[in-house]
Write a structure and sequence with these properties.
The chain contains 7 helices and 5 strands, in the order βααβααβααββα. By secondary structure, it is of the alpha/beta class. The protein has a single domain, classed as 3-Layer(aba) Sandwich (Rossmann fold). The longest helix is centred in the middle third of the chain and has 15 residues. The protein is globular and about 40 Å long. This is Twitching motility protein PilT.
Amino acid sequence: MRVFLDANVLVSVLNKEYPLFPHSARILSLADQRRFQLYTTPICLAIAFYFAEKKCGTAQAKQKMQILSSKIHIASVDSQTVLGAISNPSVLDFEDGLEYYSAMQHDCNAIITEDSEGFYFSEIPVYDCRKFLEEVVF
């Protein structure tokens, strides 16, 4: 199963943000199972880096990003992604639109985010970390 991870899931893992951290860390650990392939975009990584750098400094944030990047697939954001987000009148948040169309281009079966309302237009299932663990993993 191909699963797209939104930036807020990555931020939670990198910064050990409670109470979400135990759930988001379990989501990230799915990368070690053959059954799951985790995806995110460079945009989500940039957002996650920004918040990690604020919390622990540049050097440690880069180390965390290196480990994170080795565990997940980095989905492209190209002109097709941009045009999809721009041309869909249902997409009000451009960043969410870019993430959604990138997930679609990479045949993701689900999106995991702590802002499911931002993906109200999604044609693929959208879960928060807890719901995904309860409904899909177990």
